[in-house]
Amino acid sequence: MTTVDKAALLAKRFGVEPVEVPGVGTVKIRPLSRAEAYELRNREMPEKDMEVRLLALALVEPKLTEDDVRAWQEASPAGEIDPVVKAVLRHSGMEKTAAKAAFPEVRG
């Protein structure tokens, strides 16, 4: 059995995944860190605000602020952002845990 090197354990290991926004183009997302996932789970906030925080953390290209994500929510059709949110949750390994508690629309 090999003991892991501390530097390797503490190094960030985020991959980036492209997600198609139909009719708009492709965005790039990264998974949330465990600390970020806990932050989202442990904050009392409306679902809309949780989506804003999640996307502001996970969008790599383009990098959006929380205000930018709110503007996107206002400007887009209701279902446009869902594939991006679902991809972040899937890429973060949160589909079956935080997703059900934080984002009821991904149940089932």
Q: What does this 3D model show about the protein?
A:
Strand 1 (17-21) and strand 2 (25-29) form a beta hairpin. 46% of the residues lie in helices and 12% in strands. The chain has a 3-stranded antiparallel sheet. Helix 3 (47-58) packs across helix 4. It is globular and about 50 Å long. The protein has helices at 6-10, 34-41, 47-58, 66-75, 82-91, 98-102, and strands spanning 17-21, 25-29, 59-61. It has 108 residues and is α+β, with helices and mostly antiparallel strands. The protein has one domain (30-106).
Descriptors for this entry?
single chain, 108 residues, alpha+beta, three-stranded antiparallel β-sheet, globular
Q: Secondary structure elements and their pairing?
A:
Layout: H1 6-10, E1 17-21, E2 25-29, H2 34-41, H3 47-58, E3 59-61, H4 66-75, H5 82-91, H6 98-102
Antiparallel strand pairs: 1-2, 2-3
Helix pairs in contact: 3-4
Note the gap between the termini.
Answer: 40 Å
- What is the approximate shape? globular
Encode the helix/strand succession as letters: HEEHHEHHH
Sheet of most strands = 3 strands, antiparallel
Question: What integer is the average pLDDT?
Answer: 87
Low-confidence stretches: none
Strand order of the largest sheet: 1-2-3
**How much is the radius of gyration in Å?**
15 Å
Strand percentage lies at: 5-15%
How much helix, percentage-wise, in residues?
A: 40-55%
- Give the count of structural domains: 1
Structural class: alpha+beta
Discrete helix count? 6
Query: Strand tally, please?
Result: 3
